[in-house]
Request: fold
Amino acid sequence: MSKVKTRFAPSPTGYLHLGNARTAIFSYLFARHNNGGFVLRIEDTDRERSTKEYEDMLIEDLKWLGLDWEEFYRQSERFDIYREYVNKLLEKGKAYPCFCTPEELEREREEAKKRGVPYRYSGKCRRLSREEAERLKREGKPFTVRFKVPENRTVVFEDLVKGHIAINTDDFGDFIIVRSDGTPTYNFVVVVDDALMGITHVIRGEDHIPNTPKQILIYEALGFPVPKFAHLPVILGEDRSKLSKRHGAVSVRAYREEGYMPEALFNYLCLLGWSPPEEGREIFSKEELIKLFDLKDVNDSPAVFNREKLKWMNGVYIREVLPLETLLERAIPFLERAGYEVSDREYVKKVLSYTRDSFDTLSEMVERLRPFFVDDFEIKEELWAFIDDEKVYEVLSLFLERIREKKPETPEEVKKLVKDIQKTLKVKPPKVWKPLRIVLTGETEGVGIDILIAVLPKERIEKRVLRVIEKLS
Ligand code: GLU
Reply:
């Protein structure tokens, strides 16, 4: 067989949806697993709904996910090629101009509805003679071009995921391949492109199964070899309906902005419908996935998207998988956007090294790490009850004294210091920890206070403690 080549063919009419991203990833993995080529083709023949902004964002998001491609095409730049192949079909009598007006077609459609049968074009213009058609064209009558579908033929294909599929041509009838404005339709251009680009495996969503017999007929009519097809099941939300905006964020971009790691999203999407050969394992690098991925391990029934699981997996990448330096690089823009001072990279790195196990996304990180970056916070009225106390005053004064003598630099040293304060003042641990937390963070829960004291520079601790002591005395 010729070298494997797959493609991802998005329409730039919206953000990259998780379902499409998974299609792109499966196509990519299948190509790379087979040392094959991968093509990105922008399907922008719908000039009204396609925009350059969406195209740019799609490309950016695919790159962010870690995909790369050797060939890139834009269908809007290939109209001449499509015209050439339309003419071939017209010359061979395998397609014909159709002059039926939208009103006539609407009438046919309504009639079918009344009779309770699925609509199919009547084939009226199929019977026009060449001369008649030429005359109508000369008169300037608008026309579409329809593909001549053989009657009552069962088109069969062996889908690599869905198995044996058979659809009878009487289910659809002669379909339009060029609109009256001269633009070719999806079912036609997809065949010309896949054939000319040498695509061996067409991997896409199962919503395209009804299109496949139409496309196979065009391959045959143009004398192109028919590629293999693999249709991927839809992704469902937790309520088992098709994953959509109703289920919350569904675009790659939304997850990116929320502070998800591309490696984690890539990994998670792979598990939506693909079962790794090694049971029980879930964390895979891209390289491992390339090695392991095979279409035969793709399930033929829908997968359910589990947001919590994705979040958990993102946490695993943040805590255990990614190098600290990578995490640092990705964290900085998020911290910066929150207005935190991040010019001291070593400081941020130290903070992350201690705290990376306490958040699952970078937006959670921003909240969680506030005490490391923000000195001017209010202590809520109701929390003063915990610190406005003579004993606490003593605790804070002694703490300040000790910090000034020698600031602890590790959480262990902080614990030792707190023990020492407890002993000296004969108080229980919460009488030290809780006030310290409130004084240093303004909250009653959050990041480990031993970590905060170990990492925060001495002057900033002093400042926070003094502020409270002054109010207490
Ligand atoms: N542009 C089509 C879509 O986004 C591509 C379908 C295909 O892969 O053939 O659904």
Observations:
- The chain has five domains: 5-73+187-233, 80-178, 245-321, 323-368, 375-473.
- The chain has 21 helices and twelve strands.
